Amino acid sequence: MGQADDEIAKFRSVLKTLIRDAARTKAGKGPDWEPRNNEIAWILGVNPATITRWFNGPSLPRRTAVASFLEMVGSEFGDHEEFLRWWGRVDRLRKGRPVPAVMDGPEQPHPAPQEAPSRPVPLPAEEIRWEGTGVGASVGPLDKAVAALARNLYGQWDSEASYRGLVMPPPIPPRWTRTERPVAGRVSVAVGDPDKPGRFRELPETQRATADTIQEGGLKELFEIYAGLGSGRIILMGHYGSGKTSTAILLLLHELDRRIGLTRDTSRKTPVPLLLTAQDWNYSEQSLSAWFAQQLATTYTFLGSAEYGPDAAWRVVREGRVALFLDAFDELDPERQIEAIHSINRESQTFRLVLLTRTQDFTAAVKAGHRPVHGAVALELRPVTPDLAISYLKDYQPFPAPDDDPLRKVIEQLETDPEHPIGRALDTPFNLALLSADPQVVDELSTAGPIETREKVEDLLLGRVVSVAYGPDQRRITEAERYLGYLAVQMDGEDLSWWRMHHWVPRWERYVLNTLAGTLIMSVTGLMVFGPVGQYTVTGHTGTLFGLSYGAAMGSVFGFLATVVSEARDPRPKDPERRSDRRSGARRRVLPGFPDRVPRAVNPAVALFILAVVTMAVRNQSGHLLFGLLAGAVASCASGHAATRVRSISSMRRRWARLGPNLTDLLASSTIGVPIGLAYGLTKTPEFGAVAGLLTGSTFGFMTSMARPTSDTETPPDPETHWKQDRSRTLLVALTAAVPIGLALGIQNGRAHGLVAGITAFVGLSTILGLGTAAGISDIWRTALVFVQLRLRGDFPLRGMRFLRGARKKQVLRTVGAKIQFRHDRVRIALTPTRR
């Protein structure tokens, strides 16, 4: 182990002690208490996975978070600035970056930690309740919801910041100035009367913003405006690639880091910031508040859990417990931007709003609409100065830099002639990031002929994004350009939800594929079950030929019906121009006390499945179709409702907590078991009916419980997590539906024809029941068929999710929650012509 590795390991050991002491201080515990990682995460308000990465690598907490830890423990860790300098040194060492001379110091530039702190406790010990393996504060349901949301967001954006290169090397510090463009009203209106409280009070431990403080600055000053502006409205503008989204992410993480050191009362007064994109907002149907609540409910589904109280998503919006960073406002159509501005002006806003938009587009929209955003301050990101650009590029050079380093030429160009088109093109963080990822483009710039405009430099940088990510194999580059070009055309500036890709291709092809698959699988199963081995009988018929024909017929029917259920879960939007994300065909209901509608997810797959099962079972046994339809309808409604109740889980609760039944589960089970039990009890014996009712009710009730959406409060939403959750849910529901029925029929067949016949019937019938159920309820299966359709057209690879995951790792794509975007809209635009 080298000297750098020794210092990094030593720092992590001290950091672990610091974080544990901070958790003890905030929880009001003594030095003898040894908290587990998940308990530390809960107390500090971060994600458990984040704590693990801090303790064991590979990442370190950001400077703001370390400062919060030091503030909590007081003077026990000596000089705070000295510790923060050590943090900066170690942060560079672990990435192999050069350490400036000012950071050089002794091998251990910080004294060993002392005993656990004894500062005044911000979170009183008597208000902490320890339950089993977890910890829970004696707070209200909404406070718990906000705390869970903050932890989830911390994990989401802490990870995403690393993907976007906002951790190491340090990103270019954003600089802004108050714009003179006519896009907002007077600053005095936004600031408010200093003698009267504004619409939004300043956040705890901050000062009220004034006209004098809203002039220019960096991230620190931007946070001060966000925290202290009376109107709570900020417009952050910038040109293409100026770093608007990156600035918003840094501001969001700064606020989440700051929340670590807040007491319970002060954190209650501090809203949790969320970054969302504006493409899905239809201002004509929803106010911004209603849309905000909808996005919360559909993206962070654990907010629908009963433990957080009814309708937690809209209550945190209504009570100002969250703040909205609204990105990509400029990607709305010009007419929609005008109407959206008018909608914002008309709304009685209950939450802080930071609007991110391109300068030219927003200026044009305000001019065309003849109205600025009322009560807002408009800030504009400044171009990157040559000195900052040089410093940033030097962080990507080896130390010391060799004479043949490609970046040396660019640095010399910036030092000698910053007004050259190359220098002017490198005045945005986006272009600098492209250059740092592809230093060899310097040679192409030197051989591309005269460089007369910055646009030519930008075109060269954008034109090499795919070749850098997928090179040097030209075949891979060509394939990637074709696949990404198809994505660019289909997305058309909107976010990609992988579970909605089925709207891109004709659905009749999936009907054919599912029908053929059902026919093939059930034909083979029919040969096995009805043949000499299984000897299964239906209405007195059996045998190999009967099994083949019967299996083929039933397979085609069930394959077709499974497709009907699958497509019904998320039908194509009526207006193709408005592809709003109504996950799983979400239906809406009016919420009391809220002016607009917030989606409440419905599980039509479970409802249709229960309708078919109960109707056929009661009809076949009783002989009365009307009785069967009535019983099926009641059971369908109850089960469909029960399968929509979100149940949240976390590392603070036992894994089996999600399986606990509630009153809704028992009601759904009874609506299934009672009519089936009556049908068998009236036609056979009461005892047989009781057994049949209990068996079917408990089986399908358990299946309904397994189909219920389960949301982990500590797993950040991303496409891969969404994929894994759908896979787990599908497997559980399919097994729950298939195994009990297959087992019952297998036992019946085994009693008639022997053990081998019983096992054969059990395996065969369970297989077709499980696969049929999975085909109807699985987003993965439907999307896999889409990948087959697209592969046959040559538009996308067969392993589509693997390609999307790889494109994200190569920084061609990025994610916002569970949705996928191109790294920058200019990358999408550059790729789009390849498909037109």
From TrEMBL:
Keywords: Membrane, Transmembrane, Transmembrane helix. Residues 98-121, 569-591 are annotated as: Disordered. Residues 108-121 have a biased composition (Pro residues). The chain crosses the membrane at residues 511-533, 545-565, 601-618, 624-643, 663-682, 688-707, 728-747, 753-777. The keyword Membrane applies. Residues 569-584 have a biased composition (Basic and acidic residues). It comes from the Bacteria. This is NACHT domain-containing protein. It comes from Actinomadura mexicana. The lineage of its organism: Bacteria, Bacillati, Actinomycetota, Actinomycetes, Streptosporangiales.
